[in-house]
Specification:
Number of domains: 3
Structural class: alpha+beta
Shape: globular
Number of strands: 20
CATH topology of the largest domain: Deoxyribonuclease I, Chain A
Largest sheet: 7 strands, mixed
Helix content: 40-55%
Strand content: 15-25%
Distance between the termini: 65 Å
Radius of gyration: 30 Å
Number of helices: 17
């Protein structure tokens, strides 16, 4: 679903041609035309039919021409909620999805815009978005000029966004949406046009992105709000959840699973086999014993409601009081687990443990998932939106990159002839000596517990909290590694992650690949590093 908003500053022939081009390429189901400076009836109906939209509404301004037109695909069911000199609000239904669309054109006056902020907050619903020319910036970083923007206006705009609870969409294309060259002594650019959406609206889509197009026939850029359909759910990789540790039966269950023998005689393979088996059993335990946290909270709240209604009807009794206290305590436990789950998913580290902030973590997690989605990519110079095509292109690009054969091969012997040896044979033996149990434990606990997990899904939290159970196998495996100088196949498996090199990703070259390795492998690296640090201290 695509939604277009454009401040045309006069709907002339150039604007009509540009609009026709955008509609033929992106097929928006909703269009907001701002500052058309004429009545919509003055545009021939055959033009609207040519871009597959019909006029829905234009706002009324006493003694002036309308400044907001709303047009829509004929298949969209629309009902008007509110219309004023600065905003048009509509309830829409498209493809079995119901949402509230808001097209706005903020006044140039900060005082008049206050009425706009108030009207928007009055009509907020869960599944809603705002799009248009806000005529306001959040700070100096959104304005390129010799003079700073009005601090009070920026603060009021930021306060409005915070009060609404809405989130600004990721943007691609141009950064500044308006360029002012009219009777100004210097060049000015600002981010005036944008799209904000609610958490409920975000949950309806797989990815959300706003593309800012080049300015044509107006000093404002057309912006297209792109909402990608929820894709077919893919099988998610296993990930150890910290909240499992809070269950009273977890450690007993884990101990029974871990201490069961395996068919492997090699200590390294033995640990890998136990991790794989425990992962399978943990999935079953999560469904059958731990249960769904949200469902548990709902069921306990219903039970608590019945208990409190019974107390109101029958009066106080020790039995009912004990049941109420137990239900409240149980709900508190589940709320803490949910908070821990959301914090782990959101990857927010700067809040202290114990701060619940569940809604904040939940929103951070959802927005992080939306931001990690590539909604479009330039392939051979052409903007591509098809997710399957984008995925195939990325896989092909990095497959060729990593399998490329270079002719400039440097042999180890050549390096040894150039670089002077600084570590003697005796010193090398001390670095490679078998570590003691305390050194192995130090390596495990020195690694960050909440760092991203590798392909096996187990983070440092599992290894550190279950150390008493798994330490014997880990110690034997570590000593075997130093004795045999060998890592089994599969231990060095990694997950390839693409990190954007810049804010706006346009081509695959703007992505930097990094790998996430298993904690069990990182632990061996840490052991070698600690040995090197100890040797340097001795030297």
């Amino acid at each position: 679903m695509n939604i277009l908003s454009w401040n045309v500053r006069g709907f002339n022939d150039d604007a009509k041609r540009a609009l026709h081009d955008h509609c033929s390429r992106f097929s928006p189901i909703l269009i907001g035309i701002l500052e058309p400076k004429k009545d919509v009836s003055k545009v021939p109906l055959h033009f609207w039919k040519s871009i597959n939209v019909v006029p829905i509404h234009q706002n009324f301004r006493s003694g002036m021409s309308p400044n907001i037109w709303v047009l829509a695909n004929p298949l969209v069911n629309i009902s008007l909620v509110s219309s004023s000199t600065q905003v048009v609000i509509l309830d829409c239904c498209w493809s079995s999805r119901t949402f509230r669309a808001t097209f706005l054109h903020g006044d140039c006056s900060m005082v008049v815009r206050r009425y706009l902020w108030l009207e928007l907050l009055t009509n907020v619903v869960d599944n809603m978005f705002f799009i248009g020319d806000f005529n306001a910036v959040k700070g100096a970083h959104e304005r390129k000029s010799d003079c700073l923007p009005n601090a009070s206006a920026c603060r009021e705009f930021c306060d409005f966004i915070d009060a609404s609870g809405f989130v600004e969409s990721n943007t691609s294309g141009l950064f500044y949406t308006w360029c002012g060259r009219r009777n100004l002594p210097s060049h000015v650019e600002s981010v005036l046009d944008r799209c904000l959406f609610s958490e409920g609206f975000a949950s309806m889509w797989n990815s959300l992105n706003t593309h800012v197009h080049p300015r044509i026939a107006s000093d404002h850029s057309p912006i297209i709000f792109q909402c990608q359909e929820n894709a077919v759910p893919r099988r998610r990789n296993f990930k150890f959840l910290d909240m499992w540790l809070s269950h009273p039966d977890f450690h007993d269950f884990m101990q029974v699973s871990w201490q069961a023998p395996t068919n492997s005689t090699c200590p390294l393979y033995n640990v890998m086999a136990k991790i794989k088996r425990f992962r399978t059993e943990l999935k079953i335990w999560n469904k059958q014993v731990f249960g769904n946290v949200d469902e548990g909270i709902s069921q306990l709240q219903e039970s608590l409601t019945k208990i409190q209604l019974k107390i109101a009807d029958e009066g106080y009794s020790d039995l009912l009081f004990d049941q109420e206290v137990a239900a409240q305590a149980r709900i508190g436990t589940l709320l803490t687990r949910k908070s821990n789950l959301m914090q782990q998913k959101s990857r927010v580290r700067w809040l202290k443990d114990g701060d619940r902030n569940t809604s904040f973590f939940h929103k951070s997690y959802k927005m992080r998932r939306k931001n990690l989605t590539l909604s479009q990519l330039k392939i051979d110079g052409v903007d591509t939106f098809d997710q399957d095509v984008i995925s195939s292109h990325i896989v092909d690009f990095f497959s060729k990159l990593f399998s490329e054969v270079t002719t400039n091969t440097v042999m180890v012997q050549d390096i040894q002839q150039i670089v002077e040896a600084t570590v003697s044979h005796k010193q090398n033996e001390s670095l490679s000596c078998i570590p003691e149990e305390e050194e192995i434990k130090a390596a495990v606990f020195d690694l960050a517990s909440d760092s991203a997990a590798g392909p096996d899904g187990f983070s440092g939290t599992f290894f550190q909290n279950c150390w008493d159970t798994i330490k014997d196998d880990i110690v034997v495996a570590a000593k075997t590694f130093f004795l045999k100088n060998y890592l089994p196949q599969g231990l060095n498996s990694n997950t390839l992650i693409l990190i954007p090199k810049k804010d706006v990703v346009e081509t695959v070259a703007d992505l930097r690949p990094i790998v996430l390795s298993n904690f069990f492998l990182r632990f061996f690296r840490k052991l070698l590093l600690l040995g090197l640090v100890l040797w340097l201290l001795i030297m």
